[in-house]
Amino acid sequence: MIYTCTMNPAIDLFTEFENFEPHVVNRSIFEDYQANGKTINISFMLKKMGIDSVATGFLGGFTGRYIQEELERTGIATDFVSVDGITRINTFIKAGLREFKAVNRGPEISMEAQEKLIKKIGTLSSKDMLFVSGSLPRGVDDAILKKISELSKQIGFDLVLDVSSDTLISCLVDEPYLIKPSDEELAAWLDVDPATFDDEEQLIAAADQLLHKGAQRLLVSRGEKGTMYADGKRVLFTTAPKGQVVNTACAGDTLLATFVGSLIQGETLEDALIYATAAGSSTAFTAGLSDLKDVPELMKQIKLTINVKGARKS
């Protein structure tokens, strides 16, 4: 079974106004509420591919109940730890050409709740896969990531990590199945200028450093430059399709979910990477998560380049 762990979920409230001014009542012309969180998005995208998962993490209050209900309404099983307080609501306001983003802290998570989550993860089997992604809530130390990676090593389940914390480096010795940094996150971990990775050979060398530390696979999101995959034997690059970018926040989640999902469904590595790159772009070109309908057309724009032990071919 696939599990997705979201420790700092949110309801994202999107509102649009003709004008948004201080000291007056501003009335919206559009509003939309979305259950959100990086691995919650992964569960939603896997479901769109016909792949089941169990969503876990921390939820609290009426907002937490809404998120759980939205997941279950979509047919996604849930196994969250209930916490005191209220799961956060983030607000995104669009008024003409102006945009405002208000991201809240959310509840503080007790040690008791954290121990309950670790206990749940400890019940996974060697046949399972766990996605851990996104920010950590108040009260939760980065050390929880290391605890989870150690459990993956002990039990043998596949761990997929998409976190910006420097603690990820210490998790690599536990040989996670896949990590998904952006090129900027990769640069920060290795203390280099992100512009260095305009040279693909420098990006390959950086990926090799993390593979040598224990990561089994890297999937690097590069925005408009496309995607890179590396596993120590092969390096694959894809270009990104062209389109009007509307929403970059969930594109990486879509990329990760559809890449791993495609591999689970038996697609070749090359086809999985092309499909995932198109799907991630599809989400970037829409206000919400992609419905995947335009992915076949976007795939036609993508060029794949393979590097096998230094031999480049297209």
Automatic annotation (TrEMBL):
NCBIfam families: 1-PFK, pfkB. It is an enzyme of class 2 (transferase). Its EC number is 2.7.1.144. It holds the Pfam family PfkB. CDD domains: FruK_PfkB_like (cd01164). GO terms for biological process: D-tagatose 6-phosphate catabolic process; lactose metabolic process. GO terms for cellular component: cytosol. It comes from Sporolactobacillus laevolacticus DSM 442. GO terms for molecular function: 1-phosphofructokinase activity; ATP binding; tagatose-6-phosphate kinase activity. InterPro entries: 1-PFruKinase (IPR022463), PfkB_dom (IPR011611), Ribokinase-like (IPR029056), Tagatose/fructose_Pkinase (IPR017583). Coiled coil: none annotated. This is Tagatose-6-phosphate kinase. It catalyses: D-tagatofuranose 6-phosphate + ATP = D-tagatofuranose 1,6-bisphosphate + ADP + H(+). It comes from the Bacteria. Residues 32-290 form the Carbohydrate kinase PfkB domain. Keywords: ATP-binding, Kinase, Lactose metabolism, Nucleotide-binding, Transferase. Belongs to the carbohydrate kinase pfkB family. Belongs to the carbohydrate kinase PfkB family. LacC subfamily. Pathway: Carbohydrate metabolism; D-tagatose 6-phosphate degradation; D-glyceraldehyde 3-phosphate and glycerone phosphate from D-tagatose 6-phosphate: step 1/2.
